[in-house]
């Protein structure tokens, strides 16, 4: 199945139309039943004709793949911005936790829907590439804070945080402050630092 967008012009209007179509799909996932997610409904929600939609995307799956890519790119950009900042390493780790929470809870229903949808799309190589780029960036931060940590530590920390955040979202948890504290305990505990004063001075 073709999940690539069709070739698009470089004009701002064309880019805006494609973006509107992707965002329309996101809003349907957030507020409507899954069975209403059709190309006709997406076009209607985006305010474009079905013919215009097909100029940009060959099918619904290509729109969803573009939505997954958009959300992944946003997360990666946040992580890279944190890594490039001037904050200390512990502050960067805390900021990474905050980025994970924001990614999940800014639009919680959408995030949960995309967790499922991502498994149905043939974007495995892309997912692996993103995981590698995230791991590389996070590894640099983690090893600067805890030199004993290896590359696997970054992957483990991502997996731990992802599991805790997803479980909290699925069960309807809304106390992000308490969740943040639990994530800190999990991360710094994994790195061998004790709770309450667990973070080393930068």
Describe the protein.
The chain has 202 residues and is mainly alpha-helical. 73% of the residues lie in helices and 0% in strands. The protein has helices at residues 12-31, 39-46, 50-56, 60-84, 89-105, 108-120, 124-145, 151-170, 176-190.
CATH topology: Tetracycline Repressor, domain 2
- Give the low-pLDDT segments: 195-202
Do you know the CATH architecture?
Answer: Orthogonal Bundle
CA-CA gap between termini: 49 Å
Q: Briefly note the structural class of the backbone.
A: mainly alpha
SSE topology string: HHHHHHHHH
CA radius of gyration is: 19 Å
CATH superfamily membership: Tetracycline Repressor, domain 2
Biggest sheet statistics = none
Q: What do the pLDDT scores average to?
A: 88
DNA-binding region: 38-57
InterPro entries: Homeodomain-like_sf, HTH-type_TetR-like_transc_reg, HTH_TetR, TetR_C_15
Protein name: TetR/AcrR family transcriptional regulator
Pfam families: TetR_C_15, TetR_N
